[in-house]
């Protein structure tokens, strides 16, 4: 279907199709009326008649590259100034066809025919005036005929026909006649194909492929392409696809395969020091070289070489042929000496007999069978989060330590392995005594005698965070305790006349959970037996399931119970980088802080509330807050604000709702990028990007969304190395626009110049208040 959008944005020049016709087709000399005239399939045949009915023997027939004439007198010598006619006709193969936006203009008689069907019929004597007729015609694939008739009765004779190809959505035909040749002297393969018949071909997309996938791809406007093939014995072929000016892609056609000779040695096998191990067997040690990470393309034959010095000479001690034992992953040196030092290297040979270079030699010492000594100085120190074990490192070959744990009469279970003289156990239950056993191991796996120590993780304290009257005037205690600690035994609440005597009287308290996060749980209970008491200090103690209590307790004073006023004028202003919250400070002398929660609107039983989210504690002098959580995507959010005084009294909450701006790029990014771990963060007003190093990539490209231009702009290219680690890549954008959300794309560039699909990251850069 032809759309106005395509017609507006993709028209050819005003000269129409005539600009694409070959200039080499010149007007022929006038032959005799009886002579046959043949014009090229992109050139009009023009016929002159001395009458206005196109009858009789033509005065002349020749070829014309364009229909654009202005005759003030006779068009030919021997013809009259008036009462003559001229016919232009073109028959050619239009490939897959298309649509054409034409304009036929001129004086007197004008007619346009497409495949014999009349499209324009202006057949009147206009004198020196004229007509201009626009229109569009569409044709299918194959051959078609376009004809223009012009008659001049009186006055000037003018005629002009332009017909640029209009936009279409029809794919061009697949290229035909693809041949492939290979030159052994240059190592290049060359493909040639027949030029497409379409009038709107922009270029051809050429790819070089193997039976397992693509190798390289590029575009050309010609009908041939060459590529230097690797001499690896694999079959290669060229595949060609026609692309028209409207970015319609035709079907892909592929030529025959060619096979270059295999003279390329396989890559050096990927054998690392960690892949070489030694086993202690009954009849002596054995050296094992693991090839599980080696790619099948590096083989299929692998050899193991041994030397007593890094520089050699090397002797072959083992081979492995994957064609005979396809599941094998090890090369073995079955007979090395005990207690000796060797250097091992490996080579790979392909099916054509090409042999790789040797790997970097790996130094191996055959082990002894003596276990390291037992650890000394083993100690356990516990707090509310963990039990930390420490010990002394001996000099007798221990390289790692195994730590076991047991409670009561249970059998010891492996907790983990340490590579240094310290182990942190966070799995113990608070208040439960655990027995730890530590073994030292050397590089050969010999284990020392066990050493034990006991430890007990402390129960986390419960923290009283508020004490104020409830709706019935009873003292209501708010308690906060760490979420990951055992307080299943409940809480014990005490009161006293001073902070030092706060554990004088045990109070009745039935805690109920009111709030929970990943870090803490908050409970509340009413002290029903506190009425009339002169005590002004209260504390709370958490109790573990086994009855063990926390060793620390904090006292709170029951004096100020008046909550501060509600913050006034809370308003949310959506910004390109997030949301600005502003409010007026309540008039209270002991204002200490604000409690702010950002959530999502939720309607239950017709009541709209602000649910979920995360909370922030803000300084008491704050009257604004910049929320840069996530990036603005048009969703509705809500914020709940409470004032908190010095006695930890909370005001009633005030809530505001607002819809974020939507600053996301209009351009959709395809999924499937091989670039992983991409993160964007604000740092000192700049954006810092970090991502994982991608194997096989020779460089990277960083793009930033330009909202004004409506496209991604490339801002960096190259290796973009991280100065601190080869595992990651890094880029600092010192020109990131402030006060908006900034969107980035990062793609990998390979050795052949191709670029991967991009990964996405975004960061909100709030302006300085």
Describe what this molecule looks like in 3D.
The chain has 769 residues and is mainly beta. The protein folds into seven domains: 4-166, Jelly Rolls (Sandwich), CATH 2.60.120; 176-254, Immunoglobulins (Immunoglobulin-like, Sandwich), CATH 2.60.40.10; 273-365, Immunoglobulin-like, CATH 2.60.40; 376-456, Immunoglobulins (Immunoglobulin-like, Sandwich); 463-557, Immunoglobulin-like, CATH 2.60.40; 568-659, Immunoglobulins (Immunoglobulin-like), CATH 2.60.40; 679-765, Immunoglobulins (Immunoglobulin-like), CATH 2.60.40.10. It is 1% helix and 49% strand. The strands form 14 sheets. The protein has a six-stranded antiparallel β-sheet, with no helix packed on it. Strands 3, 5, 8, 10 and 11 form a five-stranded antiparallel β-sheet that branches. Strands 15-14-17-18 form a four-stranded antiparallel β-sheet, with no helix packed on it. The protein is flat and about 135 Å long. It starts with a helix and ends with a strand.
Number of strands: 54
The first-to-last residue Cα distance is: 54 Å
Helix content range = under 10%
Question: What does the average pLDDT come to?
Answer: 86
Q: Would you tell me the structural class of the helices and strands?
A: mainly beta
Q: Taking strands numbered 1, 2, ... along the chain, how are they ordered across the largest sheet?
A: 2-1-4-9-6-7
Q: Which band does the percent of strand residues land in?
A: over 45%
Report the total helices. 1
Low-confidence stretches are 1-34
Give the overall form. Answer: flat
Largest sheet: 6 strands, antiparallel
Count the domains. Answer: 7
Could you tell me the radius of gyration in angstroms? 43 Å
Per CATH, what is the topology of the largest domain?
A: Jelly Rolls
From the coordinates shown, what is the CATH architecture of the largest domain? Sandwich
CATH class of the largest domain: Mainly Beta
